[in-house]
Amino acid sequence: MENNSRPLPRTLWVGVSLLFSLFGLAYLLSLAELQRQRQQAALRVIGPVAGFTLTNQDGNVTTLADLTNHVWVADIIFTRCAGPCPRMTAQMKSLEDALPPASGAKLVTLTTDPENDSPAVLKKYGERFNADFSRWTFLTGTKNEIAALASGSLKLSAVPVQLADQKSVADLFIHTTIFVVVDRHARLRTSFETGGDGVDWTNDVLPRLLKTVRQLENAP
Questions:
Q1: What phi and psi values does residue 17 have, to the nearest 5 degrees?
Q2: Domain spanning 47-218, CATH architecture
Q3: DSSP state string for 152-206
Q4: In the predicted model, is pLDDT for residue 21 greater than 90?
Q5: pLDDT tens digits, residue range 170-216?
């Protein structure tokens, strides 16, 4: 019996291969988009940051408008702290050093001890850690002004330690040891624990924090 079958033309094989390649590319793009959407969903909006007026390390007024259109990372410490504050400030410094030069992200450190932490004290404290004050702002104000921003908007809490419970003269406050992230539209988005058992700042928390900042800077 005569076999009339002939191999498909080479151009047809090329077309079929190209078609499968396009399907594969579309599939990979759909996976990437799904991952992006999941990441965006994970960064839910916790709440808006209310307007505030505080004083920075140079004695100048700082308001929410100074941070709008910037992603910013904030924490709360006090300069007399002998507990987690030096570690947290060193971690904030490592974040500052790791941010790309092109990033517009800002860093904000609030004091929970305004009676001691004047602008001059905060500036000296920032200089101890080689803070870049063009990116990193240290803020003070009245207790009510700080509380309105810290606990009211940023979910950063600080509680005075009763005199009878103080273990040293620097044992003044119990406060959160987290960094919170605010997006370019002044909305609180997420937080990162900086200390405690099982927390690996260098290999885990810092890379995830940098990724979050980058994600929010690229978001609409």
A1: -60, -40
A2: 3-Layer(aba) Sandwich (3.40)
A3: TTS---EEEPPGGG-SSTT--EEE--EEEEE-TTSEEEEEEE-SSTT--IIIIIH
A4: no
A5: 444 456 889 999 999 999 999 999 987 789 999 999 999 999 999 99
Q: In what order do the strands lie in the sheet with 187-193?
A: 47-48, 187-193, 178-182, 72-77, 106-111, 136-140, 53-56, 61-63
What does the mean pLDDT of the chain come to? 83
Structure tokens at 168: 């040293």
- DSSP string for 36-50: HHHHHHHS---EEPP
Question: Phi, psi (5° rounding) for residue 96?
Answer: -55, -45
Residue pair 177/193 in contact (Cβ under 8 Å)? The answer is yes
> 205-219 in b/e burial notation, b at 16+ Cβ within 10 A?
bbeebbebbebbbee
The sign of the torsion formed by the CA atoms of 141, 161, 150, 177 equals positive
Handedness of CA 114, 116, 120, 122 (dihedral sign): negative
pTM of the model: 0.77
In angstroms, the CA 144 to CA 191 distance is 23
Helix (H) or strand (E) holding 148: helix 143-150
d(CA 177, CA 168): 20
Of 188, 193, 192, nearest in space to 216 by CA: 188
Residue pair 47/153 in contact (Cβ under 8 Å)? The answer is yes
